[in-house]
Design a protein that fits this description.
By secondary structure, the chain is mainly α. It is 43% helix and 9% strand. The chain has one domain.
Length: 187
């Protein structure tokens, strides 16, 4: 009787232990992937353009409450001056822009919200969509290209595993509702 009880206990326990070990292994692999994604985001300096700055007593610093949320939707949209590119007036205009707005021959572009907010960020994307965008340089609807200064051609050279790691990390961020302005062409 004791032998049967021991056998039944083993038959019930072993699969449970194996499944728990697998879950632990999967969780560890996911954490490693997220850690790698965070490393790539930091090395790629994504915060430099996609995180608004905030004024402190020590100067401008990245706003930790709006990490990777893109150009603030509550910011005033700068008016593009009707001057020649590379003129003194144009250079003064460009130098007056904050770190989430860029100007060039394409007009004005605004850093995208990379948080997993489903309405204004990447919350409705999956890993495959993210990788396709980084490979093609075209937005999710594939109707318009990603504007400068986003170095998507450099990201396109990353492996699917690295791009997937970046996406896995971005999914862990706090979702921030911030509908970023669409690009504005030159007048």
């Amino acid at each position: 009787m004791l032998r049967k009880l021991l056998l039944i206990t083993l038959l019930i326990s072993v699969p449970h232990l194996v499944l728990n070990a697998q879950d632990s292994s999967d969780d560890s692999a996911r954490k490693d992937r997220i850690r790698r994604g965070k490393q790539l985001v930091n090395e790629g300096r994504c915060n430099d353009c996609h995180t608004p700055l905030v004024e402190t007593k020590d100067g401008l610093i990245p706003d930790s409450k709006r990490t990777l949320s893109g150009h603030p939707s509550d910011s005033e949209i700068p008016e593009i001056p009707a001057v020649e590119l590379n003129s003194q007036e144009w250079l003064e205009f460009v130098s007056s822009l904050d770190s989430t707005v860029w100007a060039g021959q394409w007009g004005l572009s605004f850093s995208t919200n990379l948080t997993p907010d489903p309405e204004s960020g990447i919350g409705k994307w999956n890993e495959e969509i993210f990788i396709e965008i980084m490979r093609s340089g075209r937005h999710v609807n594939l109707k318009r290209g990603i504007k400068p200064p986003m170095p998507w051609k450099d990201y396109a050279k990353l492996s699917d595993e690295d791009l997937g790691s970046i996406f896995a990390y971005l999914e862990t961020l706090q979702p921030i509702g911030n509908a970023v302005q669409k690009p504005i062409p030159l007048p």
